[in-house]
Design brief:
- The protein has about 400 residues and is α+β, with helices and mostly antiparallel strands.
- It folds into two domains: about 350 residues, no CATH class; about 40 residues.
- The protein has 13 helices and eight strands.
- The chain has a four-stranded mixed beta sheet, sandwiched between helices. The chain has a two-stranded antiparallel sheet with strand order 5-6. A two-stranded antiparallel ribbon has the order 7-8.
- α1 runs antiparallel to α7.
- It is flat.
Length: about 400
Amino acid sequence: MWELIQANRRKSVFIFLGMGLLLLLIGYVFGSFYNPDSGGFVGLFLAIIIWAILSTVSYFAGSKIILGISGAKEVTKEIHPQLFNVVEEMRIAANLPNQPKIYIISDAAPNAFATGIKPENSAIAVTAGLLGQLNRDELQGVVAHEMSHILNRDILLMTFAGMMLGAITLMADIFARSFWYGGGTRYKSKSSNRGGGQAQLIIMIAALVFAILGPIMAQLLYFAISRKREYLADASAVRLTRYPEGLASALEKISVSHLDLKTANKVTAPMYIINPLKKKGMQIANLTSTHPPITERIRILRSISQGIDYSDYQVAFNQIKGKRSPLIPLSGISEKLNLSLRKPESSAGESEELLDTKREVGDLMMKLNEYKFINCTCGLKLKIPPQFNSDTITCPKCGRIHTLNI
């Protein structure tokens, strides 16, 4: 859908300029608060420097920062072969030339996100909890959804927006703390001795308003672009997997989880397939919601019955919404694959296989945290933490002594 890709590129420019101008305005007002004579231009200059630095960082290292604060660790195929196979399948289906890097977050809460400036250096991160709770069809649906964000160039948009939102929030927070702890006395200057007290009061009020509303305005810009892209990623995932029930079932399982994703925050939350900050899967579609209602997304997916084209998703979307709402670009509606829905890949022994996978989640999280594993001849698996500093360990079951390579 070339129209969607071009639209997301335009939105990236809009977000870049819009949040940048907001950052400059906040810098000017905050500078004027501290020194009404010339502080505004000093604050403006500092804001320009921050904008330039953050833009450079966002482009060259934004993905690494987001992955870092999310606690994601890059893994090899040996850690989870099925995940690598599913990502490779969806990459081929999406006709992307480069394989995204694969990361796992050592957290029991199920969720996933994609990041990266370009498809050539993109990454998909999933939690250990997601791998432990989903079967192969469901995992394929989630990976296809994240691959669609890469294909549709959503990741460029959200990486830039996330970094700018973080900068505006940080500036507002620093100002608010300095104002309250400083008692609000720092705004005085020579102007107050020349009868400028009223002007100073106006500047102080404006600074406080920006400190409170600045981050909210930035979040509204951020959130406004988040909801529609989730529907579009769902529609693209249906085409990649040819099995909408896989994604629907995955969303259902993720949404009912009562576990909190500890590393998620307001900046990274919109990037996840389901908002990790909403308790017990309650997705509320209001002005500050980063995601559409999860129950609505599931109902749309389960209403698709005729085919996997974008037009089929648009029909289901209109049916659930109860009104005609243009979601899919014209280039997508006119693009026909004439492929039918496929049957699930589930096997008779899948329940037992999924149960085994759940048992392995703890081991997976330990591997990510650099635990060592030794299989004793008595059948017991010894799990050795990275801080263990002895060169031998004794099996508590049979007493056998194992030598470690430390």
